[in-house]
Structure formats: C-alpha cells, structure tokens
Amino acid sequence: xxxxxxxxxxxxxxxxxxxxxGKARQDxxxxxxxxxxxxxxxxxxxxxDDTPYGGGAGMxxxxxxxxxxxxxxxxxxxxxxxxxxxxxxxxSAGPDGAAKPVLIVPSPAGERFTQATAHQLxxxxxxxxxxxxxxxxxxxxxxxxxxHFTVRPMSxxxxxxxxxxxxVLAMVEAIGRLLPGVVGNPESLVEESHSDGLLEYPVYxxxxxWRDRDVPAVLLSGNHGxxxxxxxxxxxxxxxxxxxDLLVEFDAGKLPRxxxxxxxxxGYDVVDGRLLRxxxx
Length: 281
Ligand code: SAM
Known about the structure:
Layout: E1 2-7, H1 19-26, E2 31-36, E3 49-50, E4 60-61, H2 63-74, E5 102-112, H3 115-121, E6 126-130, H4 139-145, E7 150-155, H5 164-176, E8 209-210, E9 213-214, H6 224-242, H7 244-247, H8 257-265, E10 268-271, E11 274-277
Parallel strand pairs: 1-2, 1-6, 5-6, 5-7
Antiparallel strand pairs: 3-4, 8-9, 10-11
Helix pairs in contact: 2-4
Bound molecules: S-adenosylmethionine.
C-alpha cells in the first residue's frame, strides 16, 4: 500500500518510523511518504492560511497550496516539491477508469473512523491524508479533489484536536496493522475489540497469583471449550457495562442458549434477533 501524508508539521509524523509501522516500511510492506504543505506555496513567507470570509475567529487554510500538493502527490511526483501545477488533473487519477486514490481529510465534522473503516481502507492501493490546521481547509479543496480522489472527511471521535496529524497517526496505525505481514501473528487480529462488534475479554499472564489476586480458574483448567465460553461471556459483560451502544447493532439471532442466558443475566432479552434491554434491569 502507498500512503502519502500532507502536513505543515511533517516532523509530527515521525512516530510512523517506529515500531510495527516503521518495520513495515523498512520491509517494503508499506510505502509511506510525508510531505510539507509549505513546499507547495509560492510566496516568500510560504503562507498556507488566511482570514475567513464572513468573519469570525481563526484562520482558514488556503486552497491553492493544497491543490498543488495533492496534484503532485496523486501523480507520484511529490519529489518535485514546490513545482507549480497548471491546474489540470492529477495523472494517477485515472481517466482510464483506474481506481481513484482515497483522500482522507481528518475533521471533527467527518464520518466516524471505526475498525470497519480501517478494514475497508486497508484494501485500497493508495491513501492520501490531508492534515488540516487552524479552522480547517477551504471547503472548495474538497469539492475540487472529488474529481480526482474519493474524498472521505473522517473523524477520530467527538472532540476537537489542534490538527489532523494526531488523527493520521491513529488511522495509519489502525489501517497499517491490518496489511498482510505487518502483525507477526494474524490470529491476534481476529479476537480483538470491535472485530465482531464487541469489546475484547480481559487478558492475564503469569504469575497466576499476584498481590492476592488470582487469575480466573477457568483459564488454568485446560478446557478449551469452557475457556472460549468464559471469554465470550466476558465480552458480553464488558460490552454491556462499558459500551452498551454497541449491543444495539449486535446480531443475537444465532446465539446458543447459554449465551442468551448470559445476556439475560445482564438484563438483555433477545427479541427478533436483537438485544433489548429490559426496563427493570
Ligand atoms: N473548526 C473545525 C470544526 O469545528 O469542525 C475544527 C478545526 S480543528 C481546530 C483543526 C484540525 O484538527 C481539523 O482541520 C482537523 O484536521 C483536525 N481535527 C480536529 N479534531 C479532529 C477529530 N476529532 N478527528 C479528526 N481530525 C480532527
């Protein structure tokens, strides 16, 4: 996969050289490049922002540096930092019908980035991330870019960050670890929180007794069926406690009797394949 990140703080993305993502880059599993938006300005001060039309607080990112940067990145000539574009079409944005690169624009006003989004984006050939700052990017950039990219404004959560860089670090890590070969044991991607609409069960390691706290006995029993059932029921308990909103979407239609009982103990009945919280629970 090819990933390009455009930012006015390229050094903010340095953690992407570390750990599993850094290794994936070294191993050639991920071709990731970070670009300085200011390399695509043409004035002496390398200006990327201006005052908002209509008034109000803060500054807005100017459209032209973004058009120059995104055109160069999509055409794969990002080495020509600052080379002005004639306003045309990015070459890789397929007049021949080839898939458009996906342009992800981090924004608190975007769609929510989830594990399902990460899986979806991990299937793409090229992702481009446009890190906003200040009050965000001139809206016309997104309209223009839609001709050349599949544009997806994407939010990390319902809070406001200072810039898109932190959101990109999170999204690239979530997507990158799903690429084949990045995580050593692919099994570990299967039973994770959000992989099946539930939170993960609690995990323990040695010693079996620590500061008067014992590991649940079933985990030491060697009975794989019982362990699997205990883990499933712990997933239900934890999700009901911490993220009951996830249970609204949970498909309970095919749950075995023991699992329905586990949910019933948590105050949920299965009605038409869905979990319904009892009013008295
Ligand atoms: N004025 C914008 C609004 O209210 O929607 C917020 C701008 S914020 C201060 C600056 C930049 O931080 C945004 O352009 C975006 O790139 C990034 N950002 C802030 N919160 C974010 C979030 N929850 N998810 C993703 N990116 C975020």
